[in-house]
Amino acid sequence: MTDRFIARAAAALGTLCLGLGMAALPAVPGAAQQASLSLRDTFPIGSNGLCEAQILAPEPGAGLFDRRYSVICRDAAAPVGTLWVIRGSAGDAPASRFAGAEATCKADNGTVDTPGLTGTERLVCARNQSIIRTELLLARSGQRTYAASGLSAYAKALELGLASLANDMVMPGTVEIPLTSATDDLAFARQQAEAIAADQALVEAYRRSNAGNFAEAAEFFAVSSAALAGPGAVEARLNQGLQQSNLGNYAEARRLYAASRADSAASPVLARLLRNYEAMDALNQRKPEAALRLLDAPLLSDFGDDGEMRKLRIGPALAGQLASENNRIGGAYSLSLTPLERAQLLDGQRAYLKATALRLLGRSEAATTLLQQAEATMASVREGRVVSIVWLRAQVLGELAEGAERRGRPGEAEELHRQAITLLDATYPNSPAYDSARGLLAGFYARADRRDDALALYREIVADAEGRPLPSLRGLLAPYFALLFTGDTADGAAAAELFAGSQLLQRPGLAQTQAVLARELSGGTDEAAQLFRTTTNLARAIEQLRLSLVELRSAQEISGDQTSAIAEREERLQQLQLQQAEVLQKLAAYPRYRAVTEGTLALGDLQAVLGADEAYVKLVTLQDSAFVIYATKAGAQAWRADATPDELEKLVGRIRESIAIAEGGQVLTYPFDIAGARELYVRLFAPVADRLPQLRHIVFEPDGALLKLPINLLVTDDESVAVYKARLAGSNADEYDFRGTAWLGRKTQISTSVGASAFRDVRAARPSNGTRPYLGLGENAPLEPGAAGTARTRSALAGGDNCQWSPRLWANPIKADELRDAAARLGGASRVLTRDDFTDSAIRNLDDLSEYRVLHFATHGLVTAPQPECPPRPALLTSFGEGEGSDGLLSFAEIFGLRIDADLVILSACDTAGSATIGATREAGVTSGGDFALDGLVRAFVGAGGRTILASHWPVPDDFDATGRLISGLFAEDGRETAEALRSSQLALMDDADTSHPFYWSAFAVVGDGAARLAR
User: Fold this and answer.
1) What is the C-alpha to C-alpha distance for residues 665 and 667, in angstroms, rounded to an integer?
2) Residue 283: Cβ-neighbour burial (10 angstroms; 0-12, 13-18, 19+)
């Protein structure tokens, strides 16, 4: 239980809000209730999570009780509408107040049925020289006027937002909006954070952190930290440090804490925050002793009157300090916490952190006492009605429940879990924190042999998610999956349930990019598809411009030139946002691009798209268990793998190290771990071990460590291992000779999937409309003609003295023989670009790039970084073009911005199946993913328009012309399926003593649908 505890504690212990207002909660947990919207800075619009309302600063002349909200919707870079609640009749507020003085509004036919309001009037408004049409909804209830104005494409969001304000609660309903799927929850959070004032973003960051939306909170903290000054900036920076620690970036966390130490010294509240956050950082690093030392050390600053602090009264000595406190919410909320109250809550959190450290040291009794103290301290502030501390109180209650369970008090444990759930249901319903609390109770039921109760609660959690990824549940779902098994395996019904639950786990960003491409291709090449592409391109351009503005504004000193650049880019950003609004308005006219949700895919629907001799095999790694789901057209089953995720990580690492290791700028190969490959096959696939080699095509969805290893090199029988060992015992044995081995990829085609929905969409996507069969690109022009050195693999490992690549990397171009051979085989209007025609600038400027059905790059891949301290930027090496715009590299961002229409992209370079970084994806204007394998160059080419990608998992060799022979073999016959063409080409290398080691033939994986024809 300790590992599960520390995982939760490390995820986000820094959830105490210092500045939020307080909403009324039951002092004793009772029936759940929804907080009044008048006390909330933000609220969801509708039930499907696509739009949200965020409070705005009061307008000039607004009354004390007037409110105004922005309407933010997914995939729209700027707010799509505004909501108002004002005192007085509609006649006192003309339409121009809501639609703008330049707008002309006309009454629309009929009224709008708005729950809670009668006679809602709809007006259609327009401005001169603008194609954008907006809607204005006006209604009166009592002494209040309610109004909503915004783009007509988002009419349903305006109606539901207005109804929510009128009823002072979130009204259920389905919002239908034009959706490209180009953003995920984090990108949506960034849109919201940048649409409101920085101080409000800080408040919202805490609210989301308290609700368990930690990654979203990080986006708000980042916006606040960049824009605020004074104590607010320090507070945001401390939270940035905590987020970095939660992500494992401990050096960056220490830097941010150190940078905040002096500024925290003058504030008893910030001093407590720094103390607690540094202790959390120590706990994240599994250093409970260090955490205790930090928590017991004297504060940098404290109140001078402990008695007054305990009584929570303000004495004369504190009057001056409190008078200088800046109410960051704008003064509209009289229920803000005082510094004394915030300090007491932070001291309650300190007790909780000490309990955490003591439990990790095995001192459970002392930990329980501190947990009780923490709960009592936090509950005493305003009789436990402080919204901002609810999550932490629920966490403490959960820990107390686990302590009661350990002491053999199940009734007490269940009651404590229920109290935690009730607290969260009243304050953060449908939040990750609420789901996690329910998951803890379900886990308690599972351990107490209350199988039916546990399954019912787990099923409720999955159903309520409605397909939304819930990364926080990865550590809580293992008991649920285990309960679905009555023996070693689960039947079809249980497999379907496990499959549905597994889709709530976070997947590589590539899955999202494939979904975007599939939506674009779903309607052919008509005007709607072009509008869709324009929308996604605009979204990326807006994100790139926002990133450049953040960099400019964050400079310590801003020069006059930088001020001008900021103003120019801000104007450009407004233009792009207006242009995007116009395109979204047009796109909304096409039903296939309007969406209400992106839910999960049922297992039966996946089975329906499989062929009779295909199987979809999905691996799911949770905290301490791994599960496998096996589905064919005729049936499905699931089982628990005979290995934990940690064991899989070690085994995969052992196998990878026997294939290729980069040392001292060289790639070294060792005798392959054939026994490990056999062991991994059995531990993963034992229940279907005999069936897999009989299938024509396996679609494998990896997870965890298996994202880094192609399964074609797994060994399907014991005889292969025995024969290899017997051969080694003979004289003059070649330990690199693996001929005759029963590799899984010897008889079976294999494709790699990153998500069931993504695979279904890729399979359904229309083929390329290109009129030319093939474009080959490679053989860069050397930067230093005649430089010594020969590249053994298609990687560029040596870096320069800084973050620039060494010119030596361009001295060893990959010969274009395989490109010319493929072009000759495919014939027609095939083309090969090499040397001076193969520059980054020339590729970006090709106006016929979308005419080629197959794109083939044979060059070096740069997927690491020149030096360890440099940020990696995945790229393909090219020749240098003329002008300053060329750097001899085709970067992730540049690839993503290409316009291709390819059935297949072949990346005949090294490690092209690797990951990107958050920085690289943001530079491309991509707002999610980056940390997973396949999120690098593969994702970039899918974003550019490639349906299926052939990519490598390690440095691919040129020894024995292995890679050239492998790629050329793809085109040996016409009309073959992509995965079959790869398998057939690999066979020739498997059966050659020189190239039978998996290093030479196994690196490449078909990412997408390998059943598609290579040349259609």
Assistant:
1) 7
2) buried
Max avg pLDDT among 235-239, 596-600, 925-929, 941-945: 941-945
Amino acid at 678: R
**Of 977, 1016, 985, 980, whose CA–CA distance to 1002 is shortest?**
985
**Considering only CA atoms, which of 807, 933, 790 is closest in space to residue 863?**
933
Nearest to 935 by CA among 511, 537, 536: 511
The tens digit of pLDDT for each residue in 481-515 reads 888 887 777 788 889 999 988 887 777 777 878 87
Six-digit token string for 293: 């030392």
First to last CA, the chain: 54
CA distance 281 to 288: 10
Distance CA 170, CA 160 (A): 8
Question: What strand order describes the sheet that includes 875-877?
Answer: 861-862, 875-877, 889-891
Res. 664 pLDDT band, cuts 50 70 90 = low
> For residues 854 and 775, is the Cβ–Cβ distance under 8 A?
yes
CA distances from 954 to 708, 1001, 1003 (A): 9, 11, 6
DSSP 75: T
Query: How many residues belong to the chain?
Result: 1016
Residues 222 and 400 sit within 8 Å (Cβ to Cβ): no
> Cβ–Cβ contacts within 10 Å for residue 567, how many?
10
What per-residue string of b and e applies to 727-748 under the rule 16 or more CB within 10 Å gives b? Answer: eeeeeeeeebbbeebbbbbbeb
Q: Could you report the per-residue pLDDT of 569-619, keeping only the tens digit for each?
A: 888 888 888 888 888 888 877 766 765 455 678 899 999 999 999 999 999
Identify the residue whose tokens are 């290093």.
999
What is the distance between the alpha carbons of residues 833 and 778, in angstroms, rounded to a whole number? 7
Q: How confident is the model at residue 387 (pLDDT cuts 50, 70, 90)?
A: low
What's the CA gap between 810 and 774, in Å, rounded? Answer: 25
CA 498 – CA 492 distance, rounded (Å): 10
Bridge-based pairing of strands 902-908 and 889-891 is unpaired
Task: Record the pTM.
Answer: 0.78
